[in-house]
Design brief:
This protein has 6 helices and 5 strands. It is an alpha+beta fold. Helix 2 runs parallel beside helix 5.
Length: 151
């Protein structure tokens, strides 16, 4: 469910009441734990955290007019989804997350390549998400992106 919001505040205001508090808490967890340099914005209809052009002027290779995406979250029809590009690009980070998940949640991990889906709002592992956010700086993400993903 893509949003037409143009700012993070408007994005949150447009959420159904049962999602607002959870998304606000997840946003706070991300903001408190992401290393400095990432910028909060709306990208692809989601609340996103990107490497701004002043750090990485080349932008996203798929859309040069867009800053390099790193992390996003969205309120979908059946879940809250967290997209973390570092997990997609760094196998050791993926293995760390998958092995740590059961220590924080009783539910089975529902995950795609970079998408972690939370169907039960009470089961979001905020502490684990905070730890995940701390594991990569913008400079590290740009280096990983250029070495592994950029075509």
């Amino acid at each position: 469910m893509s949003s037409t919001a143009t700012t993070p505040e408007v994005y949150l205001q447009q959420l159904p009441s049962d999602r607002f508090e959870v998304m606000q808490r997840l946003r706070q967890c991300i903001v408190e734990n992401l290393p400095s340099g990432f910028q909060e914005t709306i990208q692809y209809g989601m609340l996103s955290y990107v490497v701004p052009f002043d750090i990485y002027p080349s932008g996203y290779h798929c859309a040069k007019d867009q800053p390099l995406p790193f992390l996003a979250m969205a309120s979908q029809k059946n879940a809250i989804s967290l997209y973390h590009m570092g997990i997609y690009a760094d196998e050791s980070l993926l293995h760390w997350f998958v092995s740590e998940y059961p220590n924080h949640c009783k539910t089975k991990l529902d995950m795609g390549k970079s998408c972690i889906r939370f169907k039960k709002m009470d089961d979001i592992p905020y502490t684990l998400i905070g730890q995940l956010c701390q594991k990569m700086t913008p400079v590290q993400w740009v280096s990983l992106y250029e070495n592994n993903l950029k075509k």
